[in-house]
Amino acid sequence: MQIVGNGFLARNLREAFGDRFPGVTAFAAGVSSTSVTDPVQLDREAEALYDALRQCRAAGSALLYFSTASFAMYGTTEAPATEDGPLYPPSTYGRHKLALEACVRAGGGPHLVLRLAHVVGPYQRPHQLLPAIVKQVCTGTVTVHRGAHRDLLDVRDLVVAIDGLLSADVRDIVVNVASGRPWPVEDIIDGVAKRLGTAPDRTYRARPVSRTEVSLRRLRELVPGFGADADGPGYLDMLLDRYVDRQLSAATH
Asked: I need a labelling partner for 167 at 20 to 30 A (CA). Which of 113, 156, 181, 248 fits?
């Protein structure tokens, strides 16, 4: 697998796949925060993607593009959101990702678009969800947006999904990859605080409820058995047990 990028996803993909799937280029060089609105950063991602698409077309390789299955793309959902829409992204980031998905489809070559939940694992950057929560808990004060939920996905489960999709030669389709269970952010904060043995002060901000649940039907049809326990009550505890100490160590070094 050829990998464009050097960040969180790129490093995990290199470790997981190495020389496997030589006919695939994974574009893992995009903007990594759903709050980004800076046109310079968004344009940089677009230009890098255009270059990758041209190279893939010339080489006859498939492009693997990572989009978002977050609130930024789907908004608050009344039923699990499917990949086929309709779509009305409520944020600049979501509209940007949807536009780049269209560029990938129009690029003239084989491709696979994965819309990802909030992926958790080693090598995360400080601004990403779990590292940011760990840092706030350590400072003793956490900002809480009432009604906010986040679907967390272990990067190891993402690797399983990618492996299954590429092994089955799935192409030219959009697939949601998530745990399927949005967690209240307050539950995530509670879990982090418990593991760090602290009780941070909380500053609450009132916002409309943001709870995005996505459909995993397509993914589970293509990768049978994916995430059998991911939407269960123990998944959050498993993630926090595995990664909170790692994020704490990264934040203090």
From this structure: 181
Q: Tens of pLDDT along 145-182?
A: 889 999 999 999 999 999 999 999 999 999 999 999 99
Question: Tokens 């500053």 sit at which residue?
Answer: 203
pTM of the model: 0.94
The C-alpha atoms of residue 163 and residue 30 are separated, in whole angstroms, by 21
Query: What confidence tens digit (pLDDT) does each residue in 55-92 have?
Result: 999 999 999 999 999 999 999 999 999 999 899 999 99
Q: Helix 235-251 and helix 129-139: axis angle, to 10°?
A: 70
Distances (CA, A) of 56 to 5, 6, 49, 61, 73: 15, 19, 10, 5, 26
The answer to whether 147 and 211 have CB atoms below 8 angstroms apart is yes
Q: Which residues lie across from 24 on neighbouring strands?
A: 62
What span, in angstroms and rounded, lies between the C-alpha atoms of 12 and 191? Answer: 25
